[in-house]
Amino acid sequence: MRVAYLVTHPIQYQAPLLKRIAAEPGIDLKVFFCSDVSTRPYLDPGFKRQMQWDVPLLEGYEYEFLPALGGTDHVSFARPWNFGLAERLDQGQFDALWVHGYGVLFNWRAIASAKRRGLKILLRDEAQEFSRPRGPARRLVKRVFFSALRRVVDCYLAIGTYNRNYYLALGVDPARIIMMPYAVDNEFFQTRCKAAALLRERFRSDLGLSSNRSIILYVGKLFGRKRPEDLLNAYARLSSDGRAEPAPYLLYVGEGESKTALEARAASLGWSSIKFLGFRNQTELPALFDLCDVFVIPSNFEPWGLIVNEVMNAGRPIIASDRVGACPDLVKHGVNGYVYRTEDVGDLHQALERVLEDRHLRQSMGRASLTLINRWSYEEDVSALKRALEIPLRKGLVTASARIGESE
Asked: Cα(309)–Cα(369) distance, rounded to whole angstroms?
């Protein structure tokens, strides 16, 4: 099967998956990018800094950057304004178009164009029911949109349980939904974490951390919806009397608009146990995952949270809010961590206490994390894609495809 994959730009999480798919017998993959913004230094608005990934983004698979009118430095609903995909679909004699994300105007045009050419349409997206607040009008528009989308998409590749439920709620036929787990390169992270374990004490010493204290880890952007302040407030409750420094360390890894306020709050407590380590790139993270005793993701909205996958490869417990998309599939309450009520600092504090006070519990939860993540991998993704390509093509829907967009 000749498969064209359309995505806005090279993504560090996807590059190893695309390489793995390209190596699969029976699948001939070519990737079409709308922008090259992530392949060079760029300003990330969330991290508030220049970014450049330190892992390869374009190795091991065939790809092409589509031409565009205007610049390609900004990726949004309407930009870049690409063209030329239709000709490339014809020239490549593709059997299927796999599209990542339905909230991009060019993707609508691409779906319509591919459908008119008789290609099978596969769609993958991160949407959940709690993605963003929707009033009655917005919900109606969404249902109308999906009534048209359902008629042209042959298979929906659900990244997890919440995503699958979202499609079902919008009337998608269950037979046309295939679970394609939102995965990371497990082998990369497990190999790096094992190597880091050999140097753990040296790394701990380099960070100025004593060897007899547990470590709570946060990794991510420091801004509103990530709720990093909830973790700090819950951590403060670990103090025996509100003044004494808690026994564990709290490490923040990341940058963002909330960092200054967090640092000020931490300074007001007068403790040396709260550390801000700044941004760390992909190859630096495994050492931090290995170092920690528990990882916390307190977001009040997280479509998935691939950082959860990454930490689980180090065999560590996870504490996550109930609005983290990965929870139903990867964070099993009481098994490999705890799921707490979003923005409930007291609930988060109790989860921290339960994990931190019992070393044997932490170890068993860590082993459970590793077992779970080993079944949530690129191998399941490849199998899912192959099953999706076997789903019968919807016939006679040229008119429906025209309702979504004109030929690009």
From this structure: 9
Integer Cα distance of 153 and 130 in angstroms: 23
pTM greater than the 0.90 cutoff:
yes
Beta strands of 235-375 (E only): which ranges? Answer: 249-253, 274-276, 294-297, 318-321, 337-340
Calpha distance 271→87 (Å, rounded) = 62
Residues 76 and 98 sit within 8 Å (Cβ to Cβ):
no
DSSP labels for 2-14?
A: EEEEEESS--TTT
**Average pLDDT value for residue range 365-393:** 97
Domain spans, the chain:
2-183+377-404, 186-373
Q: In the structure encoding, which two tokens stand for residue 174, read together?
A: 């269950």
Q: Strand, helix or coil at 364?
A: helix
Please tell me if the domain spanning 2-183+377-404 has the same topology as the one spanning 186-373.
yes
Secondary structure letter of residue 220 according to DSSP: S
Tokens 């930490």, residue located: 311
CA distance 1 to 295: 41
pLDDT band at 135 (very low <50, low <70, confident <90, very high): low
Helix (H, G, I), strand (E, B) or coil at 214: coil
Write 398-403 long-range contacts (CB < 8 A, 24+): 398/115, 398/116, 400/115, 400/148, 400/151, 400/152, 401/111, 401/112, 401/115, 401/116, 401/152, 402/112, 402/116, 403/148
> What SS3 class is residue 64?
strand
The phi, psi pair for 361, rounded to 5°, reads -65, -45
Which helix (H) or strand (E) covers residue 140, if one does? helix 136-149
Q: Looking at the domain that runs over 186-373, which CATH code has it been given?
A: 3.40.50.2000
**pLDDT tens column, 58-109:** 999 999 999 999 888 888 888 999 999 999 999 999 999 999 999 899 999 9
User: Per-residue pLDDT tens for 17-33?
Assistant: 999 999 999 999 999 99
Handedness of CA 65, 71, 74, 75 (dihedral sign): negative
Q: Is CATH 3.30.2350.20 the classification given to domain 2-183+377-404?
A: no
147 pLDDT tier (thresholds 50, 70, 90): confident
